[in-house]
Amino acid sequence: MKAWMIPAVVLLASCTSGEPRTIVIPQVEDPNDFGPQGELLVIEAQSGGDLAVALIDSAGEPLVTVDPDKRMAFCSSFKVALAGAAFEAAGEGVIDLDTSVTYTRDDFPGYQPVMEAKLVDGSGSATLGEAVDAAVSSSDNLATNMLIEALGGPEAVTARWRGWGDTVSRLDRYETGLNENLPEDLRDTSSAMAMANTLRRLIDGSILAEEQADELARLTHKSTTGLDRVRAGLPDGWSAGDKTGTCRPEGMPNQQVNDIGWFRGPDGELYYFAVMLARPQLSLRDARAIHASVGQVLADIVTD
């Protein structure tokens, strides 16, 4: 599969501050054919934000990238790597996924649909295995915090990622503080390439046992939070899975809209992607549509 590496010229477009910013647009003989990377850069300009994209094949080879090494907030998209850390720790006997954790409404960090449904007379309980499911498939924040705590805290989670060879991703806080996404803040960040590669290695069995890797793929496929993001741009019938992330509520500053995942192309090969959109000048609905547009470009790459 050919990776798109294209010479570039400079175009000015608006940014989130309302001042000019530099967008790199591919320089091609036919101005109507920018190529995939150019299409992504045009999509970035339309968003008014900063877009980072990485699409890699099953061997980890990049097929198209836009700012793949730029450090950006991962928001909730880190939860798939957190689940991977929990599966790894369980395989080592460090934690037991059958361990039950009790909680009350006072423990709610905000957005905990699965754990809230388990409340009876003001208290509830869930196993760590149930927390893995809830964190990935429903982005449940209380379930996420349960897993972080069980693994020894943010530093311990980051240490596991380092053990996988991910030298970029770092977890510093719990939900929901990790969604603050202040400019130039290195906390709770990663890059598109790091996240795509980590997901690839989690699902292909490089890190996890086959049963655990298959379960992680199943949970991302089961997730419904990203059906209107990258997966919305893929052809009908393609098998896919993803984990979304959204920093900051609608209308608040420093918003970010992410999606990391995988899909199986028409050739039967698995492809892995990470799409991170920082500070778009759009509604959340339109930012999700930007992701769908990116998904169309990614699908075209593997079918050309």
From TrEMBL:
Lyase found in the keyword field: no
Source species taxonomy: Bacteria, Pseudomonadati, Pseudomonadota, Alphaproteobacteria, Sphingomonadales
Originating gene: bla
Pfam families cross-referenced by the UniProt entry: Beta-lactamase2 (PF13354)
GO molecular function: beta-lactamase activity
Lineage: superkingdom: Bacteria
Keywords on record: Hydrolase
GO biological process, one term: beta-lactam antibiotic catabolic process
Enzyme Commission designation: 3.5.2.6
InterPro entries: Beta-lactam/transpept-like (IPR012338), Beta-lactam_cat (IPR045155), Beta-lactam_class-A (IPR000871)
Enzymatic class: hydrolase
Native source organism of the sequence: Sphingomicrobium sediminis
NCBIfam families reported in the protein's UniProt record: bla_class_A
Reaction it catalyzes: a beta-lactam + H2O = a substituted beta-amino acid
Protein name in UniProt: beta-lactamase
Protein family membership: Belongs to the class-A beta-lactamase family.
